[in-house]
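HUMAN: Now follow token order:
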Amino acid sequence: MAVLTLDRWNLAIGDGRPLLVIAGLNVIEDEALALATAHHLKGVCAELGLPYVFKASFDKANRSSIMSYRGPGLEEGLRVLAEVKRQVQVPIATDIHTPEQAEVVAAVAEIVQIPAFLCRQTDLVTAAARATRAAGGWLHVKKGQFLAPWDCRNIRDKVREAAPGDDFLILCERGASFGYNNLVVDMLGIEEMQGLGVPVTIDATHAVQLPGADPRTNAASTGGRRSGVPVIAKAAVAAGADGVFLEFHPEPDKALCDGPSCLPLDSARDLLATLKAVHAAVARS
């Protein structure tokens, strides 16, 4: 399996490397919250000796309802992310939704992310691959809820054809659709995707979603099972995941997007300490 490195941030992911933590907010709500969250999570990861990347979305384009909060948009969102990078001194991860966003986002974000719903959009994947390669970053592609793990071979091949050279792709497991309004995670899929020669992360936050099933809004938004996030994260790291993707909020029930699936910010240290221990135990086995 490939080991990816970002030397300017002293970051690595892959076989034999520390567990990578990609964590932050689901969506940018305001600059102050983004800065506070990044400071807190960077401090926790520094204390635990875990490599850290701050994540937040500038636009949540895949929403259940047209009334759902989407974020500040591209221009303001990238300004906030650039400010977080400058003040907190952390690398950035954020997602894109159209090919036209690839270059400008890759200029700010070390990790450009493709949302699960869009992982088969060839123009988007290839534009992101070219822009990320040119900027020297990593491409993080979430496996669609509709794909088998081995189907990610086609994603890998698109990226390699669009931007030949050293590997810079990370695949992300986030569950598969299981009937209506439900997701399940097949932990065997982590090894299957690693068999494609790429590192694999677990998005434990979105893996506990109940799509279109939030009783608070009469199904106008996505529900979730917050208590399941640590369960999925620990199981995936035990199964060999190379990194974790987690979303936090100081007051999850007041979060403007996907509150039922995100964790309280003050729970980050205990969970990440456990995940580090699990990762170390797997490495020794």
Summary: The mean pLDDT is 93. The first helix runs from residue 31 to 48. Residues 4-284 form a domain with the TIM Barrel fold (CATH 3.20.20.70).
